[in-house]
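FORM 7B - TANDEM STRUCTURE REPORT

SECTION 1: FIRST PROTEIN
SEQUENCE AND TOKENS:
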Amino acid sequence: MVSELRFETKKIRMADLGKESCVPDLLGELTMQNQLEFHLDETDEIYEGYGRVKSAYPYRQRNTYTRELKEMEIHTAVLENRYLKAVFLPEFGGRLWELWDKYTGRNLLYTNDVLQFSNLAVRNAWFSGGVEWNIGIIGHNPFTTEPLYTAQTVNEDGEPVLRMYEYERIRKVTYQMDFWLEKDSSFLNCRMRIVNEGKEVVPMYWWSNMAVPEYENGRVVVPAVQAFTSRGTQVTKVDLPIVENIDISDYTAIKKSVDYFFDIPAGCPKYIANIDETGYGLLQISTDRLRSRKLFSWGNQDASNHWQEYLTDKAGRYLEIQAGLGKTQYGCIPMAPHTAWEWMEQYGSVQISEDVLEKEYRERTVLVTEKILETGLHEKLKEKLETSKEMSRKKAQTVYRGSGYGALTVHGESTKHLEFSMKAVNESQTENSKEEAGLEKWKHFFETGILHCPKPLEAPDEFMIDETNVDFLEAHMEENAQSWYAYYQLGLGYYRKEDYGKAEKAFEDSLKLRESAWAFHGLSCVKLMQNEKDQAGRYILQGMAFERKELSYLKEGFRILLLAEKYEELSHFYRKLDKEEQEDSRLKLGYVQALHGLKQDKKALDLLESKGGLIPEDIREGEDSLGKVWKELYKSVYKKEGKLPHKFNFQAN
């Protein structure tokens, strides 16, 4: 059959993603930051911590999802030829969800049987499975649960091309992904393009994150004899494959959650494979710009098993193999202004012969690399990148729209072929009308300097002011002198510049004009940054009095009260909530932590263990608060150490 591109729907059980948070992400991972210490050679050239951001601002957190699963219908884009069937999810970051080898009838990827959201992304909500495209800032990207612009075109041979793209607001870059299947090829082509049309060097990050089945007796094959890794806060370079007496290519032997960033030598083809005990599995290969490969394993201990159970229903265990621009994920890499980065990736099946499979790691890797060089896959990819360049720069027919933010940006020659719009392109997306109206008002502000002024009881429509444009708002404050909203947005801009003194004054000026939960929240965050916990607690309580029914505000408020150690105030506020709010798992855990802070440990432990155990729906990867509070409460109540129950154990590293 010739290759086809179809737009379909698919039924899947999924949780309710909920609304975006009503407050800006000012605190980010304030309690999760680790200072890494690097013990590397002077020739390793790791950009240690470069480009790390403190929050996902201007994106809002996705923190009001549930874990209750219901069957729902979602859009898919399907590419198919006689060898492969590739299924994408345009509404969820363009994720490559399934990749079927039609000759064997096997899915080369790990595909979850549910969309179960958990707190693993930069905006909180994330789900496991498929291939995720992570851009801009370190971590699971801001679009992982969001729709991308989706379009269709054809290549120079008349084969259908699926295009997905967006404008990334933190780095202020545009990225574009073109996917197609050739008539007689068993590999999916992925042509990637990032464009920085700005005047500044920006930190850049890209990792293609492949969830693959964790095969019994499976192996990872990658052309590297060394890897970067970390334990605790210590980053080192280790020889492969034996690390701490474990052959890490045999991933089921890995005990604890860990990353290995493989240092592939220059001149070597860039690939990674996940194979089962017969030598069959997924091969991912790319042109040289996508230089690095990574293995992530949850490990094989109690907490590791818990995470594997928590993220799915019955799809089983997975691991991640990844491909990235930088050597590691410990920092971004600098991207020059007025620059486009392009590369090709291919995904398909591989069958390694039994005699090669039986070899030791290093000999096996050499033989697989030689085979790839013999087939010319690597060189053909370079040619494909060049021959598809014209296709990548031509316009495509829009099928689904993404966000409207790209329409507020001036696009140059490198991205003018991409259509960005503040208008919905089909009837099913008319719910975006509120966002469109807000963006039109902001467009008017950037053209005239006059900012609209909503009612203080309304949640802020957008967070468009940051360290790069706060000077524009500052220069137009005379026209906006009576606007509480203008002073509030000015405070956000100063906060992003880490000028907390000016941010405090702007928020105070906003409150003088009209009191709002939003300016009180901004002030409380400023006071936390200044380590003035009493004032932080007082301000957020004033904000919470305005927003007693808004779950995302209450979650943020409880978090700030805990950081400010205002246990009595939190406890008092919780007891006055309606029963529905009291049953929210994150709010209830905050109450347990407050009771513990007040030395009411028996009451706290009883509440933690009631109804089969209190597990917050947005428990975060690496967060040890749940296990830590259980251990402390158990020891306080029973005067002895207790074995952490499986249900409370999420500390996998």
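SECTION 2: SECOND PROTEIN
SEQUENCE AND TOKENS:
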Amino acid sequence: MKAELFPFQKRALGELRMKSAEAVYRYQRTHSKQVVSFTAPTGAGKTIIMAALIESIFFGDEAYPEQPEAIVVWLSDSPQLNEQSKDKIDLKADKIRLGQCVTVQDDSFDQEMFDDGHIYFLNTQKLGKSSNLTKHTDNRQYTIWETLANTAREKSDRLYFIIDEAHRGMQGREAGRATTIMQKFLKGSPEDGIEAMPVVIGMSATSARFNALVQGIASDTQYVVVTTDEVRASGLLKDRIVISYPEDNTGNKDMAVLQAAADEWKDKWDHWYQYCYEQHYAYVNPVLVIQVQNATASSISATDLDDCVQKIEERTGIRFQEGEVVHTFGDANNVIRINGLNVPYVAPSAIAEDKRIRVVFFKESLSTGWDCPRAETMMSFRHATDATYIAQLLGRMIRTPMQMHIQVDETLNDVHLYLPYFNSDTVKEVVEELQNAEGGDIPADIYGESLDTRVMDTLSVRPRNTSSGSGTHHTKAFPEQMSLFDQPGGTQPMELHDGGAAQYGNGGQTGSASGVHEIPSGSNNGTGSAIGGTTHQAAEQQTEHTQNPQPTGSAPETGTSQTAPTGNSAQTEP
């Protein structure tokens, strides 16, 4: 694997490899159906773990021999998810050769059995009764059901059937049809002439979701579980989700809220620029994601896209160049004109790697399986009836772009969502939808912020170990480092108490601490930054031994970290 796995991912991989090998052995010995249930929360890297498992099956590891003739069938409920999973395997699993991953096309696929040594991607939309894959034609001798049945019968010793149920992209009736099709591979379908697949590996975000899929199925089931605590501790997820909304959403305030979102996004640009400059990291280009309304009879969207771009440029002082603003509605050849700028279509799966992209317009296509950790600020013109789509998108936005917790600038551990057509009650519906998607355990703290009063309410706080005792619990902004909040008379950020979360800092923004070098998790490097020369260890010693901390605004002593002032000259627009 090109990607180094985190410890919890390595543990899950080891268990999956052992239990999948046991499942194949048990089926050969008893012919009882085998299921391996793999459950991991949002942000755990389920696809990366599965890619490592497939590579281990094909090429062996320290505990198991290679199985180059293995066959893997990967089933999801949308073509976009298939392509995203396929692209990740091609990109991260360096031992998988070009052409080994095959997308089953309904217009050309016709085989008696699947070929050895390949990974086949299927989606439930191609398995309906109206699909060409399920019919005999002049150009198709074998239906996809016959291909699957023949492979399961003749090659059961090397067939691994993966059901990706983790990213449900469908709602309502479509979701019900997808579930019915997925269950055919677990229960069998006499109507289609197939029995249950010998070995099924199910991927799911929650155990309840996969249990609903396998309910009533007679099989030997083994479980592999990654907990939310493991993912949080790894630094892969943002600490906080801040949802901003107008207290009174009856007026036409959407463009005013967009301006607030643009301010937040520009501030993130400045903070990321200074942080990456000081820490000598590749620059993180944060993305502003804008969800617009559907098309009308006369326009591509009921939202005024020209006004959107104009307002963002006015607030940020940026004049966008071609390729910096993109959209995801329409097809690959759909270039639209917005405020005098050519705005091309970009596939959602391609956004993360294109560092030129600054602003993304979308309708609904980003809600499923999208993965772009650079997307840190979102504005939605959707109305309160679309809470499910908002929650799905939030679940995709809480990944950290550098795959670690940022110690010296707490604003870089936030993701911010602006909802002009929501209020305090409907925002709680978004939180409930996110709780449902995550099995009741939201992987980040969620705060609701009224744009009228600028007061934050605690909507959901992830469980954490705290010392016993009553009173207010203070969450330290920068662990192991001095903070302005440690000064006499200072206030603690994010004070958690019965009244909710107090507003922290200056409007919730805190600059990065100049002169402190961020040491990534797992690093043993004890040398300091070339700029400041202060490590976390040194900062901790200073915190412990400083007897007379300086008041806010005074000149820092040599080697002491301080919050960078807003508008620092180092923060130039890249």
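SECTION 3: OBSERVATIONS ON SECOND PROTEIN
Residues 464-517, 521-574 have pLDDT under 50 and may be disordered.
The longest helix spans residues 254-279.

SECTION 4: SIGNATURE
Preparer initials: ____
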